[in-house]
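Worked example 2:
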Amino acid sequence: MNGVLIVNKPESYTSHDIVNILRKELNIKKIGHAGTLDPQATGVLPILIGQATKISKYLIEHNKTYMAELKLGEKTTTGDLEGEVIETKGVPNLSEEQIKQVLKTFLGKQKQTPPIYSAVKINGKKAYEYAREGKIVNIEPREIEIKQISLIKFEGKVIIFKVECSKGTYIRKLCEDIAVRLGTIGVMQKLCRLNVDNFKIEQSVTIEEIRKKGIDIVNEKIIPVEDVFVEKCKIVLNDKKTELFLNGVKLSINNEDNVYRIYNGNKFLGLGTVSNKLLKRDVIID
């Protein structure tokens, strides 16, 4: 079995927890995930099964869309409800129009400093490990991009918004920054990932469904590796060039630099990359 299974991750489970559950439930050894979700977060978690574990590097670059809930007036150590409340502050009388205008200011490319409770590595050590030890470390800002952001609902002290963003964007930090621009402080109290590029929550399966239906629902929902890259152009090789390609020989080709689906006739071989008019193998699906 090879392909990508979209799991709707429940709250209080790590991404590794989900992989371990599926490994046991489905008796699959070769399995992993792409795009880690924090335990508190729910939603789209792409699970890579079999040969699909080879394509993880292509999936981590994708844009993601989230539905987030921001609670105004509190700040925690972690930026979400997992941490301890370290500050409270009054919330100004805000209108929906004011909130919409502030959200618009986050559109585009910008620098964001990851939270101290994150998996960002500093000198080979994860930032949250320093935080748990009570050590203060300098985390360099990173460039992110907010593609779209919109207000869904505002009630009391809670703002629900939808955001499409580039990889590496921390929604917890975005929530804190939005609150500051609104003249207060805030904490992310809920987060649901709606999609990772073309992997949508509507395609997902729950852990309960897998436990109930087992391999049958996986066979029904799994996305073949070939279909994951359907938007990539294809290159068809004859038998001789296929043999050379699979042996790692670079082939002269008059194509633009890019990633391509490679075929021998109708058989999908995997992915190849073209650079300076040379095609070389990248990911081979046995």
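The chain has three domains: 3-61+199-225, 64-196, 229-284. The chain has a mean pLDDT of 92.
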